[in-house]
Amino acid sequence: MLEFRPVHENDYELCAPIMSSCGYNSTESSFVILYTWCNLYNTEICMDGDTVYVRSGKGDDVSYLPPLGGSFEETLTKIYETEKAFGRTPRFHSVTEKMREGMERAFPGEFEFEERRKSFDYIYNREELATLPGKKYHQKRNQVNKFLKRYDGRFSYSNMTKDDIPEILEFQKKWIKLAADKDGIEVLQYETTAIEKLLAFFEEFGLRGGVLRVDGKVCAYCIGAKISDDTVDVMVEKGDYAYDGVYQAINKMFVEHSCSDVLLINREEDMGIEGLRKAKMSYNPVELLVKYGAIWKK
To answer: Which of 251, 265, 226 is nearest to 157 (CA)?
Structure first.
């Protein structure tokens, strides 16, 4: 039976290479994202040979990420045996199409899959986000150019370093006050705690970020993590709306100056929020990474 335990920052060195080598490109298959939100989702891991097992929830609400590493037949069998020992039916979340194919090859017809649109990741061509070419990006270019013109000679962009972190955290406190009218303060405070947790291991986790300043003061920042050889996941993006075009500017500058080593940008899911879905679609994703929930029927 698989033995699970809480996720720890020291797991990065062993788990991250296995997880990224799977090439799923989903947010859930990234160790950094797993670690950042593990308390919210009650996430635990089990290392067994060359496989990382991930489960979330408690009691009868436990569900698994399809195993990362190893053969599907062997690893899924271990999950099945573990859950049956507790008298539970094995359930899975964040199943990508590639994962689904592996599960069905290993155990044909034994899983029931349900598409979960709100969990789809939005994948973009990095070059397009960096250059905003053609008519389809006309409005985005206008917003960026408005920012560049208005703050010409006053703005600066730099790759984030550990030295920027105190200033970033101070800006985040300010951002909470700006956003509190639109989102619940409890959610924003939890997100800020997760960002603090993330930044505490900025160098150790090999993160990358961008900082946009006007008159020497932070007006926006972005944090990303490389989740596969060709993809960076944008985990955090915050800006002060008092600066017109600031979100379009940090979006473009981050992928242009801080992500030149990859082909794709994952900007994560829309959580079923209509406004967020509209905003993500407006950047013309090249792929919506389909995800399913699954139940083992046998």
So the answer is: 251
Give one DSSP letter per residue of 105-146, joined into a string: HHSTT-EEEEE-GGGPEEEEEHHHHHH--SGGGHHHHHHHHH
Question: From edge to edge, which strands make up the β-sheet containing 121-125?
Answer: 155-159, 208-214, 217-228, 231-239, 264-266, 121-125, 287-289
Task: Determine, yes or no, domain membership for 277.
Answer: no
11/145 same-domain check:
no
Within this chain, do residues 148 and 99 fall inside the same structural domain, yes or no?
no
Give mean pLDDT, residues 214-235. 97
Judgement on whether residues 260 and 165 belong to the same structural domain of the protein: yes
How far apart are the C-alpha atoms of 236 and 145, rounded to whole Å?
A: 23
pLDDT tens digits for 71-95?
Answer: 999 999 999 999 999 999 999 999 9
Do 104 and 162 lie in one domain? The reply is: no
What is the pLDDT, as a whole number, of residue 188? 83
Give the pLDDT of residue 183. 59
Domain count, the chain: 2
CA-to-CA separations, 203 to 12, 250, 279, 288, in angstroms, rounded:
12, 21, 30, 30
Q: pLDDT band at 178, cuts 50/70/90?
A: confident
- Tell me how crowded residue 237 is: count the other CB atoms within 10 A of its CB: 18
CB of 255 within 8 A of CB of 126?
yes
Are 130 and 260 in the same domain? yes
- Pair (49, 158) in one structural domain: no
- Does residue 221 form part of some domain? yes
Whole-angstrom CA distances from 191 to 53, 116, 180, 207 are 25, 23, 12, 18
Model pLDDT for residues 210-220, shown as the tens digit of each residue: 999 999 999 99
Range of the domain at 27: 5-120+292-296
Same-domain status, 101 and 185: no
pTM of the model: 0.95
Q: Tell which phi-psi region holds residue 228, choosing left (phi > 0), alpha (psi between -120 and 50) or beta.
A: beta
Q: Would residue 127 count as lying in a domain?
A: yes
Q: Residue 182 pLDDT more than 90? A: no
